[in-house]
Amino acid sequence: MPANRTFEVKALSRVEGEGALYVKLKGDKVEHVELNIYEPPRFFESFLRGRAIHEVPDITARICGICPVAYQMSSCHALEQALGIAITPEIRTLRRLLYCAEWIESHALHIYLLHAPDFLGYESGISMATDHREVVEKGLRMKKIGNDLLAILGGRAIHPINVTVGGFYRAPARDALKRLLPELEWGLQAAIETLELVSEFEFPDLELDYECVSLKHRDEYPMNEGRIISTSGLDIPVEEYEQRFEERHMPQSTALHSVMLPEARSYLVGPLARMNLCFDQLAPIAKRAAETCGIAWPSRNNFQSIAARAIEVIDAYEEAVAIVKSYNAEPVESRVFFHSKPGEGCHATEAPRGLIYHRYRIGDDGLIAEAKIVPPTSQNQGQIENDLRAYVPRVAAFDDAVATQKCEHMIRNYDPCISCSTHFLNLRIERA
Q1: What is the structure's pLDDT at 424?
Q2: How far apart are CA 40 and CA 344, in angstroms?
Q3: Is the peptide bond before 262 cis (omega within 30 degrees of 0)?
Q4: Does a structural domain hold residue 292?
Q5: CA 184 to chain centre
C-alpha cells in the first residue's frame, strides 16, 4: 500500500440526502476526516418567521419525508408550551400511536433496504432481493403497515396533514384502526423475527466510549417527552437544552454540528443511545426479546444499532397493538382549541434517528417571531467523524475500494437523514 492514501466518496449511497466522505491517511495515521454535507441550506427556521401558529406543523413536516412526525410533534409540543395548552390523555395516547407508526416505517426501511445489504454483502436492497426475496418483502410489508397507520392518523402517509397544535383536526376512525389490528399483530411477530435475523449478523469490532444522549421518561420508552439524560450523568429538563448543547458551523458542511458543553464534546443520539439509557422502559415483549437476542446491553458498538432499531420496532408494534385494542370510541374532542398570544416554548422528542429539539417565540402579533430546530443528524455528525478516525486504521490494510465501502457501512450505522433522497456511489481515489 502507498504511504499516503485518500478515500473520497462524492455521494454517499443508501442514506437520505446528499453527503460525501473524505479521509486522508498518512501511513497508518488518520490525518484528516470530513463528513461533507453539501446540500443547499433549506432555511426552514427563517421562513417559519411571520407564519401563523397553525401553519407550523404543516411546514415542519416538509423537512423530512421519512420522519415528518418527529418535526410535527416537536413543533406542536413547543408551541403548546408557549401557549400554555394542556392536551387530554386521549390526544397524548393517539400521539404515541402516531409516533409508533413513524418508528415502524422508518426503522423497517433502514433495516431491510439500507443497512442489511452491508452485512449480507449486497450493493442495494434491490440486489439483495434477488437472493432473499422473502426477507425484503417482509421488510416492505412491515414498512407499509407503518405507512397505513400514519395515513389513518395523519390523513396521509407522507407529510401528514391531520396534525395540529392542540391535537388532531379529526380523530382517527375506530373502524379503520380496528381493521389494521391483524396487520399490526402480524408486524409484531415479524419484528421479533427481524431481531432474530439481524442479531446473527457479523458485527465489526469497534467499541467506543460513547457519550449517549436521549430523552428518558419514568414510565415508558421515550418518544414524545422526558428529561434529557446522558451516559456521564447529565439529567436536565428540556428547557436547559441550549445551556448544555451548542450548534457550530463547520467549513465542510452546510449542516451545523452540535457539541455538548462545556467540553465541546461530540455525542451520540439515536437507537443505540436510547437502548443504552432506557432499556428498562421497553415494553415487556420488546424487553424480553432484547434480553435473549445474544447482544449485551448497553452496547458500545454502533454497528449493533441495527439490532437496537429492530428492538425498537418490536416496542413500537407492541405499543401500537395495545393502543388500537383499547381504542373503542373516538374521543369527544380531538383537539384543544386556543387563542394566539405572545410566548416562548421549547420541546424535544425522539425521532427515529435520535433527539430532536424545537424552540419557538410567538410575537405580539400572534405570529412566529423566532424558530430554532436541531435535528438528530446534526447532533451525530461530530460523532460520525470520530468513529471514522477510530475505524479507518482498522480497514486501511484493504484496497481502496473495499476500505471505502467499509467506511460507508460505518456511516450507515447512523441512518443519517441528510434529506430525503438516495444517491449512487461516485468514488474518486488519489494515490501518492
Answers
A1: 30
A2: 29
A3: yes
A4: no
A5: 21
- Domain hosting 98: range is 4-204+325-431
pTM: 0.89
Tens digit of each residue's pLDDT (9 = 90 or more) over 205-244: 999 999 999 999 999 999 999 999 999 999 999 999 999 9
Instruction: Note whether 21 and 12 are within 8 A (CB).
Output: yes
101: which 3 cell numbers? Answer: 407508526
Q: Is the residue at 276 inside a domain? A: no
Considering the domain boundaries, does residue 222 fall inside one?
A: no
Of 223, 44, 14, which is closest to residue 119 (Cα–Cα)?
A: 14
Residue 245 domain-assigned (yes or no): no
- Which CATH number is 42's domain given? 1.10.645.10
- The strand pairing partners of 230, in sequence order, are 213
Orientation of helix 271-278 relative to helix 305-326, angle to 10°: 70
Check residue 32 and give its pLDDT: 67
Q: Please report, for the chain, how many H helices and E strands are present, in that order.
A: 14, 14
The 10 Å Cβ neighbour count of residue 259 is: 17
**Grid cell of 279 as nine digits:** 432499556
In this prediction, residues 158-181 reach a mean pLDDT of: 96
CB 325 within 8 A of CB 303: no
Q: Which three cell numbers stand for residue 277?
A: 439509557
Distances 208 to 33, 44, 204, 245, 295 between C-alpha atoms, Å:
17, 34, 12, 21, 16
Distance CA 223, CA 72 (A): 13
- The tens digit of pLDDT for each residue in 85-107 reads 999 999 999 999 999 999 999 99
Q: State the pLDDT at residue 432.
A: 44
- Domain total in the chain: 1
Cα–Cα distances in Å, from 223 out to 74, 180, 201, 353, 413?
Answer: 10, 22, 28, 11, 21
- The three-class DSSP label of residue 169 is coil
Q: If you ran DSSP here, which 8-state letter would residue 52 be given?
A: B
